[in-house]
Amino acid sequence: MIVFYEAEKPGVPPLRVWRKSTYGDGHAYEMLRHGEWVPAKKPGDVLQSREVADDFVAVLRWAVLPNGNVVSLLAFAWDDKLHFWLHSQDTGVARYSLSEAADKTYNEALPPGAIQAPIDTPLNEHEVRRLLAKRTAEAASAAEVVAREQAARAEQQRGAKLARLRELSERTLESLTAAEYAERMKLKRELRGQL
Amino acid sequence: MGKQGRVPQDTFDYGEHTIPGTTVVMPRRDPAHEYAPKSRPFVFPQAEVEDIAIGLRLGLNIMLTGPTGCGKTALPRAVCAELGEPLIRFNCDGETRVSNLRGMNVPVARDGVLALAFSPGDLAQCMQNGWKVMLDEIDAALPSVRFVLQPVLEEDNRTLRIPETGETIVAAKGFTVFATGNTVGYRARTRAQYAGTSPLNSAFVDRFGMVIACDYPARAEEIKRVQVNVPDCPLDLVDGICRVAEDLRADAKFTADFSTRRCIQWARLMVEYKGDELRSAKLAVLRKLESATDAIVAKEVICRVFGYEKSAL
Question: What's the pTM?
Answer without folding.
Answer: 0.65
